[in-house]
Amino acid sequence: xxxxxxxxxxxxVDSSAAAVLLHQQxxxxxxxxxxxxxxxxxxxxPTTGLLPVVSGPAHRQGCCSSxxxxxxxxxxxxxxxxxxxxxxxxxFRRIKDYFADEYLAGRTPNPxxxxxxxxxxxxxxxxxxxxxxxxxATGHYARIQHNAAENDxxxxxxxxxxKDQSYVLFGIRKELLxxxxxxIGTWEKxxxxxxxxxxxxxxxxxxxxxxxxxxxxxxxxxxxxxxRNHESTAGDFVDMKGRVLGKHDGYExxxxxxxKGLGIAFGEPRFVIRIEPETxxxxxxxxxxxxxxxxAVTQVNWLADKPQTDLRCLVKVRYRQHSEPCRIVRNxxxxxxxxxxxxxxxxxxxxxxxxxxxxxxLGGGWIQPPQ
Length: 371
Known about the structure:
By secondary structure, this protein is α+β, with helices and mostly antiparallel strands. Helix content is 22%, strand content 27%. It has helices at 13-24, 66-79, 89-104, 111-130, 189-198, 220-228, and strands at 4-8, 28-35, 83-87, 135-137, 142-147, 152-157, 180-181, 235-238, 244-248, 271-276, 281-285, 291-292, 295-302, 311-316, 324-330, 336-340, 344-345, 352-357, 360-367. The strands form four sheets. It has a six-stranded antiparallel beta barrel. A hairpin with a 5-residue loop joins strand 15 and strand 16. The longest helix is centred in the N-terminal third of the chain and has 20 residues, at 111-130. The protein is globular, with a radius of gyration of 21 Å.
């Protein structure tokens, strides 16, 4: 009897190709589309980019629209696999709460990671157990491998360097790794599109989307006002000495290290150095002011054995940034302190710091403001 796997289907090409591969490999595949249950967003399971993918109003094309649900169902029908569309309104509200809390606290949230932790590899696994499935699967570009010599499971980078999504998966519970399948992790994106095309799937040419599913048009201020009745986050741009340089429309529009889109001109490039929600000030400075030589990280999730001594590894502090060689020190409270070999620029509180040994994800946690 074939082993059953519940696959998160978003209606995009990646999860659709994953369905084809699992079906070809002989699994008993069950497709699941996750709905937010709210009119502004019928969010499925996004699998691309730093942040979840946009849905917006029903007429807007995106990963979480009604069109995506229809695309996912068509793929399931073509492959002859069962398909479910379930309401996860409470879980999506938790992600929205997190997003709003982080931005109003002056941090840069990463809801894609939390969506993975709470939904894709949380509620998805709960559903899988209800239908007697052995595995859950998604269309992420990453790999899970078993080391027979050490009888250990690990999370690894995907083969496509341009699409690797291991960074956003660091929060998976280690004990779940043997029950997770990532079928497209050994493929590159052009190959995935060709696979979908050969399977006769019209999503083969469907564009990827990289926006936030519950914030149409990236209007963070509008979302905060609607969701939290927050009237204004507007305030002053100030320099490193506190001198007012100009006005901004809302500090949620900015992240540490940002240079473009400030809406104010200077004789030399200025960058966002710090965000101070209490005063609604956005502090600007020069590039050298961004240099960080110590990073505090909490809520650490280890996907390999916890180091007993200082750890030398690579660390990535943004999804699209290169990893940097660092020394990691575990603290008595299970937080860690990262000491990069060379200063890292643009470290944003609220983002994830993920630790790598070559291509293996050792673990990761959440960056805290400097003390």
